[in-house]
Amino acid sequence: MRTRVTELLGIQYPILQGGMAWVATAPLVAAVSEAGGLGIIGSGGMTGEELREEIRRVRSLTDKPFGVNLMLLSPHIEDQIRVVKEERVPVVTTGAGNPGPLVEDFTRLGILLIPVVASVALAKRLERYGIQAIIAEGNESGGHVGEISTLCLVPQVVDAVRIPVIAAGGIGDGRGMAACFALGAEGVQLGTRFICTEECEVHPAYKEAILKAHDRATVVTGLSTGHPVRCLRNRLTRKFEELEFSGAPREEIESLGVGKLREAAVCGNVEEGSVMCGQVAGLIREIKPVREVIADILREFWDTLDRLQKVRNS
Ligand code: TUI
User: What's the gap between Cα 154 and its chain centre?
Assistant: First the structure.
């Protein structure tokens, strides 16, 4: 399969695995890259040196291209930036902010910078800075979310820029991938689907919670504080709702979320922790090896195109 995204990244299939903090560690990342997609380390929560170790662990498992996601609000962001430069990581994605100031340095070092954006305005601004591809993420996604749905955001970004667009948010299978290609995307990024894989090192209770989820199982907390996060509805999100409705001070609401992703992902506390995942959680029925997940997505993608062709010929 060839698109501008496979050519730019040097990968076989235009399928990226979202760089999820505390979830996307070396075994998952290497498995996705080995299967022909692009695995991406979630560096959120790591110190610079922990990130370096994870990068080296990926390199011990695969020779294929891989990426690191930099969560721009991380307290360790300066160290993490230094480490990805020193380690000459092939691809860096960014989230939760504007990576404009990084473009010059990364370009000089041959590091491909692919920002995640949730708006047309930021996509246009970053294209002017000289970036080569962009991920447009709709608010069906898990974790830190924007305001616009994938179905509305992707075609607006596609129309606003000339660089290739990778769609993210709400894609759980090959039908979703085909839908995003219909909107003009040339690649897709999936997060939640890759959590429920054998290679993903997240706590088993986190995977089970996603398997049990239904269509309305996720909520967005933190809208009132300016840090909206989508995760599974549980005891923690009910506490958030209570505090947010009561008009509690912003600091008190924010402090409720501190350390809670680790609590769910590492300790397996899916009631008091933050089980970040997208609205496609309701679509996911089983835990499979990464290779099978990618094979399924590709088969469903081609089946969808065949189905559409039949509509045309009917
Ligand atoms: O970054 C994400 N998703 C994330 S990051 C994360 S880590 C976390 N840990 C604990 C608590 C909260 C979060 C979990 N999920 N997605 C990419 C993304 N970026 N979505 C939306 C944006 C975004 C938002 C605003 C990108 C740029 C932006 O720009 C603001 C500006 O400066 O214009």
Answer: 15
How many angstroms separate the alpha carbon of residue 303 from the centre of ligand 1?
33
Asked if residue 46 has its Cβ within 6 Å of ligand 1, the reply is no
Ligand 1 contact via 97 beta carbon (within 6 Å): yes
Residue 261 near ligand 1, beta carbon < 6 Å: yes
CB atoms within 10 A of CB 86: 12
DSSP calls for 95-152 = ESS--GGGHHHHHHTTPEEEEEESSHHHHHHHHHHT-S-EEEE-TTSSEE--SS-HHH
CA of 301 to the centre of ligand 1 (A): 28
Q: Ligand 1 test: best mutation among 70, 144, 157, 171, most atoms within 8 Å of CB?
A: 144
Q: What is the pLDDT along the chain (314 residues), one digit of tens a residue?
A: 999 999 999 999 999 999 999 999 999 999 999 999 999 999 999 999 999 999 999 999 999 999 999 999 999 999 999 999 999 999 999 999 999 999 999 999 999 999 999 999 999 999 999 999 999 999 999 999 999 999 999 999 999 999 999 999 999 999 999 999 999 999 999 999 999 999 999 999 999 999 999 999 999 999 999 999 999 999 999 999 999 999 899 999 999 999 999 999 999 999 999 999 999 999 999 999 999 999 999 999 999 999 999 999 99
CA–centroid distance, 36 to ligand 1, in Å, is: 26
Give pTM, 2 decimals. 0.97
Residue closest by Cα to atom 20 of ligand 1? 145
